[in-house]
Amino acid sequence: MGHTSLEKLIRLQKKTSNIRNICILAHVDHGKTTLADCLVASNGIISTRLAGKMRYLDSREDEQIRGITMKSSAISLHFTSGESEYLINLIDSPGHVDFSSEVSTAVRLCDGAIVVVDAVEGVCPQTQAVLRQAWLENIRPVLVINKIDRLIVELKLSPQEAYTHLQKILEQVNAVTGALFTSKVLEERAVKEAELEGAVPEGEVPELSGGEQVYDWSAGLEETDDSHLYFSPDQGNVVFASAFDSWGFSIHQFAQIYCQKMGIRSEVLQKTLWGDFYINPKAKKIMKGAQSKGKKPLFVQLVLDNIWSLYDAVVTRRDKEKVEKIVASLGLKVMARDLRHSDPKVLLSAICSQWLPLSQAVLSMVCERLPSPSEMSAERVEKLMSVGTRRFDSLPEKTQQLKQAFLDCVSEDSAPVIVFVSKMFAVDSKALPQNKQRPLTQEELAQRRELARQRHAERQATSQIAEDPDSASAGGAQTATPTNNTNTDADALCAQTEALSVKPAEEEEEKKEHFIAFARVYSGVVRRGQRVFVLGPKYDPALTLRTLPEGCSADDTVPSVPHLACCTLEHLYMLMGRELEELEEVPAGNVLGIAGMEDFILKSATVSTSPACPPFTPLNFEATPIVRVAIEPKHPSEMPKLVRGMRLLNQADPCAEVLIQETGEHVLVTAGEVHLQRCLDDLRERFAKIEISASKPIIPFRETIIRPPKVDMVNEDLGRQQKVAVIHQAKEEQSKYHEGPQVDSGGLVNLTTPNKMATIGVRAVPLPEEATRLLEGSAELIRTMEQFSLFAREGKTLEISQKTLEQIQEFRTRLEGHLQGWKWRNAVERIWAFGPRRCGPNILLNGVEGYQRPSVWQCLEGEKEKPEAATLRDFDNSIVNGFQLATLSGPMCEEPLMGVCFSVESWEMKLAPQFTQQDSVEEETTSRQGSENSDNETRAAVSGESESGGSNEAEASSSSAGGQSRWRGDVTDCYGPFSGQLIAAMKEACRHAFQAKPQRLMAAMYTCEIMATAEVLGRVYGVLSKREGRVLNEEMKEGTDMFIIRAVLPVAESFGFADEMRKRTSGLASPQLVFSHWEVISSDPFWVPTTEEEYLHFGEKADSANQALKYMNAVRKRKGLYVEEKIVEHAEKQRTLGKNK
Ligand SMILES: Nc1nc2c(ncn2[C@@H]2O[C@H](COP(=O)(O)OP(=O)(O)OP(=O)(O)O)[C@@H](O)[C@H]2O)c(=O)[nH]1
Ligand SMILES: [Mg+2]
How far, in Å, CA of 650 to CA of 659, rounded? Predict the structure, then answer.
């Protein structure tokens, strides 16, 4: 087939109903790029011989070398099915977990997905992840079961066994879909119930019109039709394939073939080719119950048997005669060259690609089963348009009207342009079509030839002139000198102008990387040179609609609005894999590339001509970036280049994060080792183009406290012994610092600010593990609650969707469930704040007697701010900030805290009267302050104020009306602003309270799933245990000789793990590491032997390796903190034993 012309594709872009935007998703190495190759070859872009071997869409060098895809890339293909012609915008995505963010960027732009599953490996972790992603984005999947050839050649299954095996794989995939579907239905039902409850007054049962009372106990699953969701060959959404051998088929194709041969209606065959059916030749009927009667199912008899015998003839037995017979019976033509080829796979591909062309099977399934852009569901549109916790119906009316534009997906000029950019990718300026060398036309060639001739003539002329003065100088030096002078002047001038003209060229050289936005048009037509609005993720259309004039467009000069910018679409491209094709306009429903937006978009954005357009919901990223390294240039003078390079890298990668730490280090955060390697390569070769050195990965830790252990290190009961020690220790500490915090035996720390005006008492308590985990998983909800409180403080309200409110309610109930016992009485009610960063897994509790403040659960209760003690309330924020600082970096090695609850048990303020009463503070008051303090101490301890209740309230507020402003800004004394002191004191108190408890480090853990054959199992375990991995379970994959091992592994030990595993097992096992959770390291970093048994067991120095101490010291060293280490352990004089005799 010839190369499809660009004009044809452009023509097809306008026919929205014949466009399919699809992506290929799968676990790593299941054959996505190989499949894409076959589809690309069907358009003549690469040769069919190379299809499956070339991996055309893996255009980066490292992708080819490593054999894995690292980015998503798109290509537009043409497909003819019967009468209709289709445009397929295909996006290939990576399967490696490190690049799962690239999958998110691809899925967002598509309407459908081809999910590929390896017939041998079956459903793997990433298969589940991509199915979930497709589900979350509401895009419809179809299934390709790939690598069927491995069942024949590697596993040597019989057709019947293969059939059973394939059935199992289908079941596995459908089980994943089923689980997603069930959870959605249950969720919807819960929402519906909540709405019903809201509509009917409490206590009443909803009644039917007939007056009967009903109670519906079904879960809603029965009435919801889910049959279209599942993969089943008879539904036409499954293709069986071997992408490597370029064949694939759906049941439909075989039904067509056999309906003529056997005279059975193709609809009947379509329904019976897959399933428990067999042919009864005598009765000339297709019957059910093949299994129970021991008959061959139709699928085995008519489909698999044929393929097996083909492989047998071509690959296994190389039976020429039989091959020729098969070729003749199938009516195919095979070239003699292929027939004679020494590699049987060549012949196999030649036969199969004609008999069962893969592209035909896959693309016709795509066109029939996947929706076109104009069939987008209303549900998906609403999801795209309502950011985070906002409800769709709380959006401004004009914004809601845009929903219709999404649904219509028309390319008329009247329709608003809506485009979503899901990522920015860098291309070399040479690759841009406008910079590419075109083949020259005849006329241009002639012109150039003429130019060259002229230049040659000129050069000859000047060389002659240069020779002449030389000959003249012999006669008259006088005349020669001026000519020479002018000549050199002219040369210098020339050199200067050249230098001037070279400079911009160099700059041009610098700006070699151009950013192209990877985007899709959802409505309207985008044109080259058009002006559009770029909407950042935090853009609020409601705000803009109020400020911008009616009918305002991006062409006008627009007043500045937060998160809104105007830009021009400089170039539009059709994405063609490794190439870009320039376009003038792109109609709705197409995927495209846009140039000229790098200054406006960092990673993703919404682009529209209407300011009413809301920003799209952010992409769902599955992986959390966790591996950090500090980067510096080899030559310090190249720092600016590195900074620029890192900025570019940050823009070009959807998931990498670039930050500058307080220490001044430039830090790169990536999703994993492979991702890190790619980022470093990019930085070296494309973005910074300098030599860089990267530090060892910076491993994150968390600090926490635990309950005092009951046994010592040798498992002896500690009993009272320990307690005595603690009290003793506390007393010692107190005597050490007279000024410092007072610590009592229960761990309560009392600390006074340096100006002696406030004293706080804080106690640290470990949170139960489940509660910590819950907090960690609910960060998003906590952030919403925090936002709500912030809005409430400013007197505004934030509309939160019913669903989110329910989630918050559930979060609260679950938290209450986890915090049981007398210690936690009313704890959930009393939560003051979460931290660090206001949404972390630590809690600040309000244990101050009588101090009332707005609850963090405000959004649930809808309560108004309660009247409270004004002075304390004013400084409420300082306490919270102190807590935030304390939880952000702990005392062990300045890492964030986790699972710690700080309870503020007392908070007393001694305020000098002049601060509360007078507006102006004279100089002398400050000087007299000391003496006055003792006389007129105003105790603003809360207990007093709240007891006096309402009557005092008016007075308090009136007195503080003037004084308050003084308190906030001007309260200064020799120790600096008071609120600052309070923050510092709170932070210190928290740190001391933390240290009063047994401290532990927490390590980040990966889960890894390793597939390995029985022979290498032992080595897999070896590598795992060497790196402190813990095996969770091991099971055998049915029908294969593969074992699946699930294990957890500390991130700290994971570097080089995948490589070592591959090497030790000769490439037979390769693990996928995904960040899973934080785990407490059981050993105490500060441990020294205390009990008699411990001395006996470990010796006085306890010099056995303490893993936690090692980790802690490594972190401290890196951060430049003091490390208590002895360089010389035993300072004995060295002596030579031999001489001592
Ligand atoms: N035997 C066999 N091997 C296949 C088949 N399809 C792909 N492969 C091989 O599987 C390996 C991985 O193929 P890719 O196409 O790179 O897999 P991928 O899914 O794109 O991998 P990532 O993009 O890295 O996730 C290659 O070595 C292919 O040759 C197949 O049908 N049969
Ligand atoms: Mg790939």
Answer: 9
Nearest CA to ligand 1 atom 12: 29
**Cα dihedral: 66, 67, 72, 77 (round 10):** 150
Q: What percentage of residues in the chain have a pLDDT greater than 90?
A: 18
Strand 842-846 relative to strand 900-911: parallel, antiparallel, unpaired?
Answer: parallel
Give the sign of the dihedral formed by CA 718, CA 723, CA 728, CA 730: positive
Cβ of residue 301 lying under 6 Å from some atom of ligand 1 = no
Mean pLDDT computed over 69-76: 91
Which of 53, 244, 249, 348 to probe ligand 1 with, by most ligand atoms within 8 A of CB? 244
Is the pLDDT reported for residue 1098 higher than 50? yes
pLDDT at 487 over 50: no
378-431+511-608 CATH, one of 3.40.1130.10, 1.10.287.180, 2.40.40.20, 2.40.30.10 = 2.40.30.10
Fold of 701-733+740-862+876-911+980-997: Ribosomal Protein S5; domain 2 (3.30.230)
Of residues 141, 83, 149, the one with CA closest to residue 113 = 141
User: How confident is the model at residue 603, as a pLDDT?
Assistant: 87
pLDDT attached to residue 1071: 79
Instruction: Show the tokens assigned to 822.
Output: 């007398």
762-775 pLDDT, tens digit per residue, is 999 998 888 999 99
In this structure, the residue with its CA closest to atom 13 of ligand 1 is 31
In terms of CATH architecture, what is 627-698? 2-Layer Sandwich (3.30)
CA–centroid distance, 1099 to ligand 1, in Å, is: 57
pTM: 0.76
Q: Which residue has a Cα nearest atom 21 of ligand 1?
A: 29
Position 1060 pLDDT exceeds 60: yes
- Banded model confidence at residue 223, pLDDT cuts 50, 70, 90: low
CA of 931 to the centre of ligand 1 (A): 84
The C-alpha atoms of residue 914 and residue 923 are separated, in whole angstroms, by 12
pLDDT band of 965, cuts 50, 70, 90: very low
Q: Is the CB of 248 under 6 A from ligand 1?
A: no
Topology classification of domain 1000-1119:
Alpha-Beta Plaits (3.30.70)
Tell me the pLDDT tens digit for each residue of 149-175.
Answer: 999 998 889 999 999 999 999 998 999
Q: Is the CB of 78 under 6 A from ligand 1?
A: no
Place of tokens 């005799």: 1141
Domain ranges of the chain: 6-189+230-369, 378-431+511-608, 627-698, 701-733+740-862+876-911+980-997, 1000-1119
Give the environment of ion ligand 2: residues with CB less than 5 A: 32-33, 69
The verdict on the CB of residue 96 being under 6 Å from ligand 1 is yes
Reply yes or no: is the peptide bond before residue 768 cis, omega within 30 of 0: no
What's the CA gap between 585 and 1004, in Å, rounded?
Answer: 49
**How remote is the CA of residue 1062 from the centroid of ligand 2, in Å?**
19
| 6-189+230-369 is a CATH 3.80.30.20 domain | no
Would you say the CATH fold of 378-431+511-608 matches that of 6-189+230-369? no
pLDDT tens, position by position, 320-341: 888 888 888 888 888 877 777 8
Residue 1126 has pLDDT above 80, yes or no: no
DSSP three-state, residue 479: helix
Q: How does pLDDT run across 990-1030, given as a tens digit for each residue?
A: 999 998 888 898 988 888 888 887 888 888 888 888 888 88
* Region of residue 717 (phi > 0: left; psi between -120 and 50: alpha; otherwise: beta): beta
Nearest CA, atom 11, ligand 1 = 29
State how far the Cα of 524 lies from the Cα of 416, in Å rounded to an integer. 5
The residue whose CA has the least distance to atom 4 of ligand 1 is 244
Mapping DSSP to helix (H, G, I), strand (E, B) and coil, where does residue 209 land? coil
Distance, CA 88 to ligand 2 centroid (Å)? 18
Residue nearest to ligand 1 atom 9, measured at CA? 31
